[in-house]
Structure formats: C-alpha cells, structure tokens
C-alpha cells in the first residue's frame, strides 16, 4: 500500500505523500504493539493482566514501562501526523507557497521532526514512570480485599495505570491543540475555496477538495468507530460486562489501520488507479495503457494442441 502512495502520487499531491506514509506507519505500529501485549483489563480495578511479549520478563517493572511508553509514542506520533496532514492540506489549498516550501523541505525532518520525536519519547517515558507504580502494594491490596483476584493474577505480568496530574496534562492538552489545528485548517480550506480569488484550475481544486474530504471522513470514522466504542465500554456498560466489552472493543479497533489504508487507496483517484495497475501487473502480468489493458509478457500457458508431437 505504501508503495502505491510513493509511486503513484501526482505532482499536485507533492510532499503530502510523506505525511500519508508517516501517518499510516505509526497507525499500524500502534495497534501492532497493542496486539503484542494481549492485555486483559480487570475492571473495575485499574489493573490489566498482560500476555504475549510481557511474559519475557513478567516481573520487570522497567520492561513494562518501556513497552507502555512505546505504545504511547506510536499513538502520539500518529496523531501528530494527522495534524500535520491537515496543516499541509491547508497550505496547499490556500496557496501558501512559503508554508508548503517549509513543510516540503527535507531539513525540516532533521531539525524539527527528529527532535520532536525525541521529545515525544522522553515525555511518554516520563508518563510511564508516573502512571505505572510498583505493583507489590497492589498485590497486597488484592490479597486482603479480593482473594479470588489475587489468586488469578499471581505470577502474571501486570500493568497498573494510575491517573496523575502529569499524564492528564501530557495527554489532553496536545490532543485539544491538535483538534483545534485540524478544525482551523478545515475551515480555512473551505473558506478559501469559496472565494472568487481562488486561482487554482478545476482539476487541482477538485483534487484538493477530495483530499480534504478524505481527511474529514477519516476524522469522522475515528469519532464513530474509535471514540464512541471506547466511551460505551468505559462509561455506559456496567462493570459486569465491561471486561468482555473491552476485549471486543480492542478487536474492533484493530480493524482501523486496515480501513484507513483501504480508504486512501479507493477514495483518492491517483491511488485507486495506481493500485489497480499494480495488481494487474503483479498478479496477471498485464499493464493498463490509455485505459486499455494489454498483456505485458507472453503467457506461459501452452495449449495441448500446440504441445502435442507431430
């Protein structure tokens, strides 16, 4: 899929393709790390039983903190790329050439994005230090108040997340800023396109409108397919059904990266055509030229009549 984005992006899309690649890469990495944990939340307690890679060092709090930090690093990076995609679309649609030049410059990766990623890594690890205390005290609490739970979690790797002032500030403030930037960019794009001073051609304007609509649809999907299930499982359903609801919720959320890339491949015209051409070439050995499908290489099939001895 990423090969299609890199190979078949048009000139009008420009460096925006790299933001698509970054967005999809961190999105897939976030859910891949989540799947590796095989977590089992024990509601209503703030304790999660971990499986998968957590069994490598089940008693190491440091390993759990690093694993926890890596998940949030990928998640925050994914959200940052979504915000950057909106900013880039705003710059292109409103014809802000200076902003486009800056966001398309490779030096921006070295001097801004790499230091920013290092900062995200540091903040997420500090978040893990605040959010994941030593679990020994919690084991004692379970042993005194709930012997069945204490016996169930004995010897298993545990993740205990505590809500503190730091992780609330670190998570919610950047999220609100990102939503504000996305909303402002969307409003600016539609406002500029409605003005008569718009100097873009019909084809370019239609492409930019398609890309903005694609971002809006993806944001709507995040709200309906991600935020809403989380709200239902964490707030609406009762404690009795919350564990199974949470398990189903995460399996549903794991489909989001597939939808996101499939939507990009089918909704944006140049990627839709590129994906079709790549499939024709790789599977059937055919190539599409000027809307006509032609055989790229001779078939290896030999009929029985031609292969029979004379």
Give the helix proportion (percent range).
over 70%
- What is the CATH first-level class name? Mainly Alpha
- Distance N terminus to C terminus? 49 Å
**3D shape:** elongated
Oligomer: single chain
The number of helices is 13
Mean pLDDT: 76
Rg, Å, rounded:
25 Å
Category from helices, strands and their pairing: mainly alpha
Q: What number of domains? A: 1
Task: Summarize the biggest pleated sheet.
Answer: 3 strands, antiparallel
Q: What spatial order of strands do you see in the largest sheet?
A: 1-2-3
CATH topology heading = Rhopdopsin 7-helix transmembrane proteins
Going by CATH, the architecture would be: Up-down Bundle
Low-pLDDT runs:
299-310
Number of strands: 5
Q: What series of H and E elements makes up the topology? A: HHEEHHHHHEHHHHHEEH
Strand content: 5-15%
Write up what this structure looks like.
The chain is 71% helix and 5% strand. With 310 residues, it is mainly alpha-helical. It has one domain (10-291): Up-down Bundle (Rhopdopsin 7-helix transmembrane proteins). Strands 1-2-3 form a 3-stranded antiparallel sheet. It has a two-stranded antiparallel sheet with strand order 4-5. It is elongated, with a radius of gyration of 25 Å. The model is unreliable at 299-310 (pLDDT under 50).
Present the secondary structure layout.
Layout: H1 2-8, H2 16-37, E1 40-41, E2 47-49, H3 61-93, H4 97-104, H5 107-131, H6 136-145, H7 147-153, E3 158-160, H8 165-193, H9 202-236, H10 242-253, H11 256-267, H12 269-284, E4 286-289, E5 292-295, H13 304-307
Antiparallel strand pairs: 1-2, 2-3, 4-5
Helix pairs in contact: 1-12, 2-3, 2-11, 3-5, 3-8, 3-9, 6-7, 8-9, 9-10, 9-11, 11-12
